[in-house]
Amino acid sequence: MMPLSWRNPRRNLLTCVGLDLIGLVGILAGLSSIWSQPLTGQLGWMVTTITAYLLLGWLLGTYTLLNWHRLPRWTLIQRLGLCLLTTLMLVAILRWVINPPLDIWLVHRSTQMSWLLPTTLWSLLVRVSLRKGRLQAEEPKLILLSSKTEADQTLQAWRKTPTRLMPKWLPAAEVAKQQGPLVIAVSPNLRQHADYKKLLERLEQRDPRECNLTTPLALAERQLERLPPKLLPEAWLSYAEIPWSMLFSPQRQLKRVADVVLAMLLLAVTTPLLLLPAALLIWLEDRGPIFYIQERSGWLGKPFMVLKLRTMKVVPPDAPISWTIPGDPRITRIGNWLRRSRLDELPQLINVLRGDMSLIGPRPERPEIEHELEESIPHYRKRHWMRPGLSGWAQVCAPYAASVEDSELKLSYDLYYLKYFSSWLDLMILLRTIKTVLKVGGR
Fold this sequence. Notes:
It comes from Prochlorococcus marinus (strain MIT 9313). By secondary structure, the chain is α/β, with parallel strands linked by helices.
């Protein structure tokens, strides 16, 4: 098997951030030289403006567009324009609040426009060029070499992540004719067929920089950053193979320490600012209970009681269990906003302190629903091998689960997190969760 050297989906984003930074610094240096204005004493405002531009670009999605299989130009222009306007507004507000000395020329409105408008055009050029392959190697073609049935099953996994570049299924005779950078996902079943051995030998003799051979599962794992359960073998991954299983794992200990410290800080900050006002609004809407306590499955499937702010109308205890759907009439007005901002999950910080949950991990599900999911979805119980979390890889990558099919999609992300758990992945999930909260983009 050749090494998996094709482009990682996140590399475009990091390249784009670096090029934006080069543009910001380079254009400012050029303006300083043209205007004969020294940058001495401007460092604080320079760092503030650059940080604001990059963070707002991330928050407004000017980088995530690069992962879409098509780059919608008008959407890109809108997002970059909004990033420009919000950066200018933020710097103007900070200037009004701080009132810097007159010799800080970097905060003048004319300077900001002269700096950030060309930077926005530079950012547009960078993103278009990245997608056209002008600034890096050509994007490889993704090809499936398998039976039609296996190919349909693999392509079904891609259709659930429509923004990612989809591979193509081609007959063996067509695969042999393909040129240029290729990533060919070969079904393990075909390697046992004598009819395909000569074709595979010819492909393996090609320049590995131009032709990579892998498997459909490895292709999905790398390009989609998830592990579709139906593509996994029955004996996939034992508990001893996951990073979490090591008794004295430094990352495992660090995760628990971070859970306790951050949970205490978040409770201290959010209780007076968010929890108390939200609790009052919940009570004022229908005079019902503020908190909602429900049994969920935790570590190794052991039940525990999860605590949330109530977001739905009060129902009888014997009401039938049902999925929450978009526009669910049971959701209250304040509950809709709490769900979108994910503030209804804040009381679960108490569950984190008790050790029932972690800040990051698979979301806990109701035991009654899990019985159905375990029968329908392969490898479902493996998600219990880590403590459930307030947020997780599935929560920041997939929509809210409202069916068995949605739960299978979310499980594919949970299994990926299970296999690749690390402090770095936890940090990335935390940042994307903050982005969702700031954009009120939950459900």
